[in-house]
Design brief:
This protein is an all-alpha fold and 229 residues long. The protein has eight helices and no strands. Helix 1 crosses helix 2 and helix 1 crosses helix 3.
């Protein structure tokens, strides 16, 4: 799906990070599953976090230098009304200043941290779920260019997307390194193997209108990636 907004928990990348957080918290809590996002029994999950599981997980993510792990653990805890230790709140405020995020998402968390009572009352970040976004878009006039189909995706910036734990299964940098490694191995193998003679690929001359459209799309994507947040 990608992303349907720039607020908290409005992208697949964020949900992947939450999944990884839940897996790590489950290990610390010595349980098979530890659902933080929309749990069936919020009171039970909150009680478990307040028993010391939150603090242990927060310290573990801090040791791993996983900024997004600390940030989204706090986000999940706040939505449940968990009691967050003062030193962890101080650390996440500092971490937030050093971590690239979309302006809307960072603003939501800054507002939440400033207003969170830390007394058991859950905090609502006011982020639209994908269903809310779809329902909202269905009330608007559907664009004729898409045949009446409303696109929900928004364009994402690589540098502002949340990252998985360093060295973990969702570590994008590690994934890129692995991909480049396999590509080099494949290229080296191809260089040793004789290639059969092939006919040259015929040149496809696109209409000027199509060339202009593609060029404009590439420029728009590049300008979006380079624009300051």
């Amino acid at each position: 799906m990608g992303a349907w907004g720039y607020g908290l928990l409005q992208s697949d990348a964020e949900l992947d990070v939450v999944d990884e957080i839940e897996d790590e918290v489950a290990k610390l809590a010595k349980t098979k599953r530890f659902r933080l996002l929309h749990p069936k029994d919020p009171a039970r999950v909150k009680a478990k976090l307040d028993s010391g599981v939150f603090h242990r997980a927060f310290l573990y993510f801090h040791e791993k230098k996983w900024n997004h792990g600390m940030i989204y653990l706090v986000v999940m805890a706040m939505t449940l009304g968990s009691t967050i230790p003062a030193e962890d709140l101080a650390q996440v405020n500092q971490t937030l200043k050093q971590t690239p995020m979309y302006k809307e998402a960072k603003g939501q968390l800054e507002l939440g941290l400033a207003g969170y009572k830390n007394n058991g009352e859950p905090w609502d970040f006011q982020s639209k779920s994908i269903i809310d976004a779809a329902n909202a878009s269905s009330t608007n006039e559907q664009p004729a260019a898409t045949g009446g189909f409303q696109m929900l995706n928004v364009m994402e910036k690589w540098g502002l997307m949340p990252q998985g734990m360093p060295g973990g299964p969702n570590d994008m940098e590690k994934g890129m390194e692995e991909m480049l490694k396999h590509q080099k191995e494949w290229e080296a193998k191809q260089a040793k193997e004789p290639r059969p003679a092939t006919e040259p690929t015929p040149k496809v001359d696109l209409p000027q209108e199509e060339k202009d459209r593609l060029e404009a799309a590439v420029k728009a994507w590049f300008n979006f990636q380079m624009a300051p947040e």
